[in-house]
Amino acid sequence: MQDVECVEFLQWALPRLHRRWPGFRKVRRTACKRVSRRIQELKLSGTRTYREFLGRNPGEWSILDSLLPITISSFYRDKAVFDFLGQTVLGEIAANAAAREDTLRAWSIGCASGEEPYTLMLAWRLGAQASFPGLDLRILATDVDATVLDRARAACYSISSLGQLPATWREQAFTRDTDRYCLRAEFRTGIDFCLQDIRLALPPEMFHLILCRNLVFTYFDESTQRQILERLFTRLLSGGALIIGHREVLPPGTTGLAPWPGAERLGIYARG
Ligand SMILES: C[S@@+](CC[C@H](N)C(=O)[O-])C[C@H]1O[C@@H](n2cnc3c(N)ncnc32)[C@H](O)[C@@H]1O
Which residues are 158's β-sheet partners? Predict the structure, then answer.
C-alpha cells in the first residue's frame, strides 16, 4: 500500500477508535503493514473498499483496533528517567512504604515484552533495595497483546534490547544463550504478567508507583486519556509516583499531580 493511501486511511480511522494520528505518524509503517495484510486477508482491493467493509461490519472495528498497538520497547529506555527513578524516586517511595508495610507495589501499564518491569526490578534489586532489607517489590505488568506477554515470561532478549542497560547489571542479571540474553530466575520473581486492556479494566490493588509510558498519552485521544487518568488516580496511593513517557504531556488542566522535584522534564509526577 502506498504511504499516502495509508496515511489518509489512518487519519480517517484513528479518531473513530479514539486514537491520535500524531502518535502514529512516526510508526505508521508498522500499522500500515498490518492494515494491508488485513485487507489482503479479506480479499479487498484497498482502503476504499475496506472503509466500506467497516461500514457494513461494525465488528471489524475491534479487529482493526487490535492491529494498532505498537510494541517497541527496550531495557532502561530513556536513561535519564531510570537514573532518576533509581537514585531518587524509588528511595523516597520505599521509605514511605517501609514505615507502614512490607511490600512496595508497582504497576507497569503497556509492559510490552517485559523490558520496562524487568528494568524496574533490576533498579530495585541491584540498587535501592539494599537500604530497605525488609521491603519486597512486587510488580504487576499488564499489556493488551498476548504475544508480547509470552515473550515477557520467556525473558530472553537480543543484545540490541539491552543496549542502554548498565553493563554491570547486564553481567550480573543475564546469562548468554548463543545470540540471546536471558534474565536469571532470581530477577524474574515478584513480577506478574497479565493480559489487560487499560481502557476496560483495572487491577483491584493500590500502587506506590505506576508507569504508563509511551502508550496512553501518545496513542489515545484526549478524552480517553482523561478517562484513563481518572481511573489511574483510583489506584495510585497518596505520595506515590506516576511516570509517563518523557516526551508525553498530561491533558491540560490535570490536577492532583505535581512534577517530581528535579524531574520536571522526565515525565515523573508525585501524587499529592
Ligand atoms: C510502545 S509500547 C511501550 C512499552 C513500554 N511502556 C515502554 O515505554 O518502553 C506500548 C505497549 O502498550 C501496549 N498497549 C497498547 N494498547 C494497550 C491497551 N489498550 N491496554 C494495555 N496495553 C496496551 C502495547 O501492546 C505495547 O506493548
Answer: 180
DSSP string, 188-206: TTTEEEEE--TTT---SS-
- Angstrom distance (rounded) from CA 195 to CA 103: 23
C-alpha 109 – ligand 1 centre gap (Å)? 7
> Contact, 248 vs 220, CB < 8 A?
no
* Contact 213 CB / ligand 1 (< 6 Å): yes
Report the atom number in ligand 1 closest to the C-alpha of 198.
20
Domain that holds residue 42: 3-66
Structural contact between residues 97 and 103, judged by C-beta atoms closer than 8 angstroms: yes
Task: Report the pLDDT value the prediction gives residue 184, as an integer from 0 to 100.
Answer: 97
Domain match, 97 and 213 both: yes
Question: Over the stretch 9-20, which tens digit does the pLDDT of each residue have?
Answer: 999 999 999 999
72-110 pLDDT, tens per residue?
999 999 999 999 999 999 999 999 999 999 999 999 999
Give, using CA atoms, the residue closest to atom 17 of ligand 1.
144
- 173-188, pLDDT tens digit by residue? 999 988 899 999 999 9
Query: 93 in ligand 1 pocket by Cβ < 6 Å?
Result: no
Residue 227 located in a structural domain = yes
> 47 C-alpha vs ligand 1 centroid, how far in Å?
26
